[in-house]
Every structure is written in C-alpha cells, then in structure tokens.
C-alpha cells in the first residue's frame, strides 16, 4: 500500500515537471513574439495636412444672390463621385442640397 502511494507521488511529480517544462517553452516563445525586433518595426510618419479652401466670410441677411438671379458656374462631385456641373442643367429648375457625408 505504501509503495503504491510513493509510485503515485513520483508519477505526479514527473507529470508536473513535464508540464512545467512545456509551459516554460511556450512562455519563451510568446515572449519572443511579443518582443519587437527593432529592424521589423514600422515607424509611421505623419502625412502632410491636406490643402483646404479657406472658409468664406459669412454674409449678412439679404446679401448674396437675389431670388431668380443667375447662379455662378461651379462643379461638384455627386454621391457617386461623378463631377456634375451646374451648366449641365441650364434652362432647367434645379434644387441644390448640400449635406455632409461624415468623411
């Protein structure tokens, strides 16, 4: 009975030792993966700021185009990215809605 108990303790100690060794190997492999190699690191460089159009001065109420006046010629991209010119709709009634796409 005592010999069985000693054998069980030896087996448990052996299994525990093997598991600890494999656990240490995995920890070292994880540490190798998590430690960056200085040659492999990509340093992000900031992009130069985009060129923007300055904001126009706000108009006082009543200033600007009068109702029925001819609008200035301009072109803008539509929702699909195609350039649309106001002159394409000459002679037609046009409603222009400006909105932000959140980009």
Question: In short, what is this structure?
Answer:
The protein has 103 residues and is mostly helical.
In words, what does this structure look like?
This protein is mainly alpha-helical and 103 residues long. It has one helix at residues 2-34; strands spanning 75-77, 83-85. It has a two-stranded antiparallel ribbon. A hairpin with a 5-residue loop joins β1 and β2. The termini are far apart. The model has no long low-confidence stretch (mean pLDDT 76).
Class from helix and strand fractions: mainly alpha
What are the secondary-structure elements, in order, as H or E?
A: HEE
Global geometry: rod-shaped
Helix percent reads: 25-40%
Give the strand order of the largest sheet, numbering strands 1, 2, ... along the chain.
1-2
**Counting H and I runs of at least 4 residues, what is the number of helices?**
1
Largest beta-sheet details = 2 strands, antiparallel
Uncertain runs: none
Number of strands: 2
Strand percentage lies at: 5-15%
Radius of gyration of CA atoms, rounded to a whole number:
37 Å
Mean pLDDT: 76
**End-to-end distance, in Å?**
78 Å
Helix/strand layout:
Blueprint: H1 2-34, E1 75-77, E2 83-85
Antiparallel strand pairs: 1-2
Relevant terms:
1 helix, mainly alpha, 103 residues, rod-shaped, two-stranded antiparallel sheet
């Amino acid at each position: 009975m005592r010999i069985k108990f000693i054998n069980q303790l030896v087996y448990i100690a052996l299994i525990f030792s093997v598991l600890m060794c494999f656990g240490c190997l995995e920890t070292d492999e994880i540490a190798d993966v998590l430690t960056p190699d200085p040659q492999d690191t990509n340093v992000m460089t900031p992009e130069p700021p985009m060129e923007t159009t300055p904001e126009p001065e706000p108009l006082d109420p009543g200033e600007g185009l009068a109702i029925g006046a001819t609008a200035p010629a301009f072109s803008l991209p539509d929702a699909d990215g195609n350039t649309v010119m106001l002159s394409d709709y000459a002679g037609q009634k046009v409603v222009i809605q400006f909105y932000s796409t959140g980009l």
